[in-house]
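Hi all, long-time lurker, first post. I run a small reading group and we've been trying to get comfortable going from sequence to structure in the token notation. Rather than ask abstract questions, I figured I'd post a concrete chain and ask someone more experienced to write out its structure so we can walk through it together at our next meeting. Sequence below, copied exactly:
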Amino acid sequence: MEEQSNPISTSFLVVLLVYSLLSLPTVQADGPTNVQFVGANALTYSGADEFGTLTLNSTVRQGDHLFLEIPVENIGSVAQVASIVLNVSQENWNHTMYFDDVSIEGMSTHVFIYLSSMQVDEGLLEVSISLNNTSLFLNDSIQVGPPPLPNVHVDIQLLSTSFVAGDIIQFNITSSNLPGERTFNGMLYCLFLGKEVYNDVLVLGVGQETTNNLSISAKPGMLECELQGDRNQSNHTNSAFSLEDLQSAEFGLAGASGFTILGGPHHSGDDVEVSIILRNQGDASGNVQLKVVHDSIEHASNLLFLDTGSAGELKLVFEDMSEGVHNLTWFIESTDGIVPIELQGTETLTIFAPQQMFVELEAIEGDNGVQLSWNASITNGPDREVKLRYGYRNLDSDVYVNEQVVTLGSGTLVGQTMLGDVPSDTVVVRMEPVGWTASTNSYIATASLEGDEATYSMEIDPITLPREPIEGKEVTVTIALANTGTSLGPSGMLYLTDSDGFLFGQLATEPLSAGSTRNVDVTFLVPKGNEILLTAEWNFDATSIEDELSILISAQIADDESGEIPFAAIGSGVAIACCIIFVLHLRRGTTESDTPKKAKKTESKPKQTKAEPVEKSCPACERKLRIPGDYTGTVRCPDCSEKFQVEAEESFDLDEELDSIDDSEPEPSPSIEEKVQISCPQCDSNLRVPSTYKGSVRCPSCSNVFSAA
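-- Answer (accepted) --
Happy to help. Here is the structure in token form:
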């Protein structure tokens, strides 16, 4: 009995628990229990104006205000109060709207209305809705369409039926806005081979159609037209018509030079020529033209006709260019052929300052009148022609009697012009540019008239015959005479002496013509000594010029017939030398004794000694020259003809040193006429003249004439 009651008690408890659970109310916070969203598909999106008036658009479009309808239903039998939160957002904006404490009758649907305060943009729009105090929410999104647009179609129709390259052909361009939503207000723009051939305003209302005519020159290419300036629904905003199968010329560069600026460098006022060489590589003949834009002005060459495979040059000339940097924008154009896009570009041209002119003038008046010597030049640049006008100055005006045109380039052009007799002491040359612009309109040089005169010069040839003179033998010395002046010189007399005034030779000289030279030979016996200083003196027209030359002398070699060594003579010489040394030693000992006074030596004629030669180096070639030690003056090197000054050197004389031991003084030598050294006041060169000579002297170095007094 007890075992049967346990199952009954358990079953009762289970039934009681289930009932209790079913009897518990639904826990939903404090929100409405029977209110819910109808669903995402029930949301209604419409476009409206700012007042909520719906537009005629079938969908929400850019520029509309969003008009959103949100249905919420109460499935219970009792009215309930509900609040919802709405959030609307786009990429650049968002808005949150609260609907508070809205009463919804039982078993009914309430529609919440939302009107955005902002216009929506084309693109994604997102909506999020939630029911307050419940877990219910709803998310949705739509795509906002573009604003109302026209729907314009463009069509190209070729009207010409028979044509070849270069012909003018006609097209009809038809535009229609039949299914559009609003008027099209923009531009119709057409290109052919990259160049604009049509550009005009196009205003086309809904349901309208218009046709425009277009004319172009026929050649292979693509005609393309497109709408610009307004949006259009149709993707058919571009339209094209092909002429690429048309036979025509096709132009390209002939060679690699391309567009070339010829000549140069260019200077202010020059004309500048440009050039390009083209070849017709197409399958038909055609015309081509070079165009260059400079300073916003377009310049065009002449048309060039080229057959298939032929080439030709196009040129343009720009006149009177100004100084500075210029940009030349060039391109090739053809009405009946294809021109590649690379046949265009911009080149920079630099124009330098004008070239300058220079001319120098010298004038000499002779028996035949006035002779002009001139040299003309211009500054760096291209070769130029100039006109040289020759004349004389008469009071305040210049009178021109001759003219010539010469071409000047790099360097200086030298010339002479015989002007003849002129009634003025001032001559003039005027230099003018021919066909170009110089820094000045002309350049004038003047010169005073100068009379003709002879200019004599003389030089002793350092090479003698024989080359090494020998004592007692004949030697020939050559003296070169020259007249570097512009007229015939006078006759004269030539003397050749040594440093002691000994005359080796004299001869009369005939007049020398202008620019001529003459060699005179003088032969004489070589005197004894180691060296001889020759002086050539040329006297003419109360003028004297000199030249000096130092010559080394070789001693004469005596013939030795026996060939035996003179031992006896050598021994005698050694004995005599020993005696002399012994006597000198005794005399020195006597000098050191206490003798109060020495006896005077008997008077005798002083012994003349010859100075020993010394060696001097030529400063130009460093050759060693032997020169008398007591010589002061000018020496000429026999190898390089260099002249240089030497001074006498002090030398030790044994006999004089011995004579100085005695108090007796030598008897003075008789006075003889000597040569004195004078200096040229112009160039400071030293000259030797007789001490008694008081006349005029011409300096052999600078040709200055001065008094020897």
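A couple of things your group might point at:
The mean pLDDT is 83.
The two ends are 190 Å apart (CA to CA).
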